[in-house]
TrEMBL record:
Organism the protein comes from: Hymenobacter defluvii
TM regions (residue ranges): 6-27, 160-178
InterPro entries referenced in this protein's UniProt entry, alphabetically: BphY/WalK/GraS-like, HAMP_dom, HATPase_C_sf, HATPase_dom, His_kinase_dom, HisK_dim/P_dom, HisK_dim/P_sf, PAS
Compartment annotation: Membrane
PAS domain residues: 241-287
Protein name according to UniProt: histidine kinase
Known catalytic reactions: ATP + protein L-histidine = ADP + protein N-phospho-L-histidine
Keywords: ATP-binding, Kinase, Membrane, Nucleotide-binding, Phosphoprotein, Transferase, Transmembrane, Transmembrane helix, Two-component regulatory system
Signal peptide: none
Length: 594
């Protein structure tokens, strides 16, 4: 049964009770009114007739016998009484009155015949006695009916009092139960909501009925279950996000220091702790103003924050030179104000500051490499240009012998080729940096052709330095998929480097052999060799590895471009070398299949 039906039944019961009380009261009053009307109609009227008959008898006793007016009036009253019979025995009295009145009339007629002056007294006495008897009978009946009416009135009053008492008790019961029916579930709902606001989603509402509150309880319990699931998932997500954020902060390669509006340290990541040489337990929760007194680096970091123009002070702050793990490192300071909008004051307020130390060592080194590269390129361009200029002046002398002119011309050609190679390297790097990529013309070719062209190109350099070149190319070497021009350029670069670093009179060896689905080419020299820690560095752009004599080599671009060319063709380029044992540069190219 739903709540609406319960309340309607309660009000219906009250309505029925009120209608019952009203109906009973109306019935009781109707009965009393009917009894009163009957008494007034019958008994009171009979009493009135009896008194009028007595007055008529009194008049007859004093009137002459010839006057029949009183007798006629008496007869009329007696007849009216005969027609108003209401009580037991009243009919016999009415009949007796009629007979007595008739006898009186006869006696009056007889008296007139004998000319008497008055009627005899005996009939009047008898009629008077009968009249008194009628009056007495109706008086007793009226008294009896009045007592019965009083009894019925008392009974009705008692019944009404019982009904009113029952109605009051029922009304009190309904007034106490119906609101309680509505309020008690609300109390349970209010208590459950109070627990829910305190994030206690386990306090469900007992589902004790199937009415509206039962449906509300079922819906509320389902909501709590969903909230529990949502809270569990949200908590897991928050923990995941917090762990992710903490992992990101902890793995940053930048030092991060978070301060609140009172410069209390809220967060310091591992990099910042390492730079400050203080554990997180001695930083987090501490006042940065106090910690700076014991830590020079933190004092330096906070100095720009104390300046009137903080942004300008931070921008003008020099790079911090910090020794880290035995190496020189450079860090750049950045400061960011943390603000939050306050809805209460409708203003944006400062809630903290974030300081970061960014490791710019690579950029510093790159800047240094760029400076070294410019200096090297300037030197590399200046030397051949100066040589070409000097040799051009020698050619202007007509006294120079023909054989000497030939030697000078050859030297000019070599320096020109050197300049062309450097310019080609710079152009290749600019194309790669611009994202143009490497345009390849890959087709099946034999390595013998590539090796022949490359060795012919560097043969004058071999002759000048008195180096001997040995080739080990098996006749059964399979064809490879390669760009002839780019691969020849790579081999020329490797041979030029080997010639540059090899002592006079040594032997250079070029070998090729099949290795699985590739052909591996090796250029072996007997130069000073390369330390293992520099094996990868020499393939980086602008890399300069000085030898024991301090010679820094060329532009530092050749090997970087060579690796790009080989890698793009599907091969690999590396070096095998040790200090004092020469170097072996190797690259592979895929074999033609099918």
């Amino acid at each position: 049964m739903n709540l609406k039906t319960k309340i309607n039944l309660g009000f219906l019961a009250m309505l029925l009770l009120v209608l019952s009380i009203g109906g009973y009261a109306w019935y009781s009053l109707r009965q009393l009114d009917r009894s009163s009307r009957d008494a007034l109609t019958a008994n009171v009227y009979s009493l009135e007739l009896g008194h009028r008959m007595l007055r008529s008898l009194d008049q007859l006793a004093g009137q002459p016998i010839q006057d029949t007016t009183g007798t006629a009036q008496l007869m009329k009253l007696v007849q009216q009484e005969a027609h108003n019979i209401t009580e037991p025995g009243e009919q016999q009295l009415a009949d007796a009155l009629v007979r007595g009145t008739q006898q009186l009339v006869l006696a009056q007629q007889a008296a007139q015949n004998v000319q008497l002056q008055s009627v005899a007294a005996s009939p009047l006495v008898e009629l008077r006695a009968l009249t008194y008897h009628v009056i007495s009978l109706n008086t007793e009946a009226l008294t009896r009916k009045t007592e019965a009416a009083n009894q019925r009135t008392d009974q009705a009053n008692r019944n009404l009092l019982v009904f009113i008492t029952l109605a009051t008790l029922l009304a009190l019961a309904l007034a106490g139960s119906v609101p309680e029916i509505a309020v008690q579930p609300l109390r349970k709902l209010t208590a459950a909501l109070g627990h829910a606001t305190e994030r206690n989603f386990s306090a469900t509402i007992p589902q004790e009925s199937r009415d509206e509150f039962g449906q509300v309880a079922r819906a509320f319990n389902q909501m709590l279950a969903q909230l529990r699931e949502y809270r569990t998932s949200t908590t897991a997500e928050l923990i995941t996000e917090r762990n992710r954020a903490a992992s990101i902060v902890d793995t940053l390669d930048e030092g991060l220091l978070l301060l609140d509006e009172n410069r209390r340290i809220l967060l310091a990541n591992p990099v910042m702790c390492e730079l400050l040489a203080l554990p997180a337990t001695r930083l987090v929760g501490q006042s940065a103003t106090q910690v700076r007194l014991e830590n020079d680096l933190l004092h330096t970091l906070l100095l720009p924050l104390d300046a009137p123009n903080q942004a300008a002070a931070v921008a003008a702050a020099p790079l911090l030179h910090i020794a880290q793990r035995g190496e020189e490192a450079f860090y750049q300071l950045a400061a960011q104000d943390l603000v939050s909008y306050n809805e209460a004051t409708d203003k944006t307020e400062l809630v903290g500051q974030m300081l970061t130390l960014r490791n710019v060592s690579d950029f510093k080194k790159l800047d240094q490499v760029k400076s070294d590269f410019l200096a090297t390129v300037s030197h590399e361009l200046k030397t051949p240009l100066s040589s070409i200029n000097l040799n051009a002046r020698l050619l202007q002398d007509e006294r120079l012998p023909a054989d000497e002119r030939q030697r000078v011309t050859t030297h000019i050609r070599q320096e020109t080729q050197r300049l062309q190679r450097m310019v080609a390297e710079l152009l290749a790097v600019s194309r790669l940096d611009a994202g143009a990529g490497i345009q390849l013309d890959i087709r099946p070719t034999g390595l013998a052709e590539i090796v022949a062209y490359a060795t012919d190109t560097v043969r004058p350099q071999l002759t000048d330095k008195k180096l001997r070149l040995e080739l080990e190319l098996p006749p059964t070497l399979p064809a490879v998929r390669a760009d002839v021009e780019k691969t020849t350029w790579v081999l020329i670069n490797l041979l030029a480097n080997a010639i540059r670093y090899s002592p006079s009179g040594e032997v250079l060896t070029v070998t090729a052999a099949a290795a699985g689905g590739f052909v591996q080419v090796q250029v072996v020299d007997h130069g000073p060799g390369i330390a293992a820690e520099h094996h990868e560095r020499i393939f980086q752009r602008f890399a300069q590895i000085p030898d024991k004599a301090g010679y820094r080599g060329g532009s530092g671009l050749g090997l970087s471009i060579a690796r790009e060319f080989i890698t793009t063709q599907g091969g690999r380029l590396w070096v095998e070398s040790e200090l004092g044992s020469g170097s072996r540069f190797c690259f592979t190219l895929p074999v033609v299949t099918g």
